[in-house]
Specification:
Blueprint lengths: L18 H4 L8 H13 L3 H6 L18 E13 L6 E12 L5 E12 L2 E9 L2
Antiparallel strand pairs: 1-2, 2-3, 3-4
Organism: Halothiobacillus diazotrophicus
Family: Belongs to the UPF0225 family.
Protein name: UPF0225 protein A9404_11285
Length: about 130
């Protein structure tokens, strides 16, 4: 039986892509890998992973992802990556994420997210929506 593709749109199998971060505890080496794994965690309503990868300066106390109607995630497009490599301490990833709630109209979020690497580990800091 073939393994399903990762929701992040990389074209790779989930276990070889975001699953190794979300389920197996590996650390993303780049800001883009963290961005993709966070998108995938949203598709799974995996609040613990999202909170764990959120910088402590900007992290909310909790995430309520299971409230309301179910969300169907439609896709992620990475538009721009600035820095955020294995040797960097800061990075930016601009993306477009699409989803639908219930049977409603598709919605979209366009954001340039900022990431910071602390002690060798990448964290989501914040982002500019509509950027």
């Amino acid at each position: 039986m073939a393994e399903s593709l990762c929701p992040c749109g990389s074209g790779k199998a989930y276990a070889a892509c975001c699953g190794r971060f979300i389920d197996a505890g590996a650390l993303p080496e780049t800001a883009e890998q963290l961005m993709r794994s966070r998108y995938t965690a949203f598709t799974q309503a995996h609040a613990p992973y999202l909170l764990d990868t959120w910088h402590e300066r900007t992290r909310p106390a909790q995430l309520d992802l299971d409230e309301g109607e179910p969300v169907k995630w439609l896709g992620l497009r990475i538009d721009k990556v600035a820095a955020g490599g294995a040797a960097d301490t800061h990075g930016e990833v601009c993306f477009l994420a699409r989803w639908r709630v219930g049977g409603g109209k598709a919605q979209r979020l366009q954001e340039c997210s900022r990431f910071e690497r602390v002690d060798g580990r990448w964290f989501y800091v914040d982002g500019d929506i509509g950027a």
